Amino acid sequence: MKRLQKCCCCASTRTGSLITAILGIILSIATIILIWTVKKHTVSFSTFIFDKEFDKKLSDLDIPRIILTINLCFTILICTLLIVAINKRRSWLMLPWVVLGIVLAIGLLISILHTSITYYLDEHDHVIEATVILVGGILYLCLYLYLWAVVFSHYLDVRDEEERGRYRKAPYRR
């Protein structure tokens, strides 16, 4: 993969990485608030492993909300770690975000495809909703992958700088 030199053609990859981490924290907090303030049965959670009665019991006990909240708290933690890594110029602190980012991208792709296919196959006519989910989800995935590539490029730059060693760096980088 070719490294990106700029984020959005005007900012450095460092600035783009900081913006990505801050956006991750803001979106995670907003999602946690949304999960716990939306009416309980407006959103349907299903496991596809157990029967519908068991899924309803899990939803009644708020288990899906708790699991999503824990996942989002870890996202906040990893984005905070990314901010610290960028400021301290430590590549090994960026690595959890880089690895989690690509895993989340794969999960997002699977989720987009599963949700849109489920709506397409539904006996009710949900073609418009399925198309909006598919197109909007793919656009969101492309944006997410671009921001991941910005952070990954900055990670590679910092890692290369660490490998060169302190005395081989330019004087203004010490």
UniProtKB/TrEMBL annotation:
Pfam families reported for this sequence: DUF4728
Keyword Amino-acid biosynthesis among UniProt keywords: no
Keywords recorded for this protein, A-Z: Membrane, Transmembrane, Transmembrane helix
Transmembrane segments: 21-38, 66-86, 98-121, 133-156
UniProt key word Transmembrane helix: yes
Signal sequence extent: none
Alphabetical list of InterPro entries matching this protein: DUF4728
Name of the protein this chain belongs to: Uncharacterized protein LOC114253204
Species for this entry: Bombyx mandarina (Wild silk moth)
Upper taxonomic lineage: Eukaryota, Metazoa, Ecdysozoa, Arthropoda, Hexapoda
